[in-house]
């Protein structure tokens, strides 16, 4: 832990991000600047408005002066419905909706999913950090350059996720509990089937993981319950989170840990892309698969369980 739990004064949200997660800041900024031109026009504003309106949060900025789509078209109506459902509850997207989106966007599907993910979870992340630290004095920055390429959209998401995975302030057990809670809320099959070797090495087992589903009245410690409450709030009601949720985070986590916790939730939420596209099938037919995160932020699957 890099700082005392009570050392929360003096930093606004943007400053806290830059101090405690500078690599992730660069990755997040690159995602905000992602505005690929798809199907003959710019859908950035449409997607960002739909997701923000659904959440009751401020929309991310969009490029001006670019070719805009006529949002009355069938493709745009399809994308509006899909992005809205992705934001509300990705687990209910069905095969018919997937087929329609694939047919509409074809090889641009990856870029479309990256756009929706960024529009869905960046406002949640910013709002949580605003509530924990105070909003940036001059507001969150607007990109001075926009990237209209659809080719490297997923590469940008992947780079951001690896930068977050390299953070190591939060203990592995809390990190894994939060990841599993989010996986179960989004009903991501592969995520639910995974178990962190680092968390298992720290002494937890399935009896601990079973308590995630009723954490409010569980034997999990107050720190873990505070993290899980923040996860639930950011997933289901990011625009209406009770002050007590943030008070509990400040009481049990240092500022550096809190930044990591919020960013972890955004990183975990990338599983919504797999769920939305039906690509979330588990690698094991039964039981669990052991994984771990390497020091460079990449993930290694198919490990053996720790002994003892």
From TrEMBL:
InterPro entries listed in its UniProt record: AhpD-like
Protein name: Carboxymuconolactone decarboxylase-like domain-containing protein
Organism: Gordonia neofelifaecis NRRL B-59395
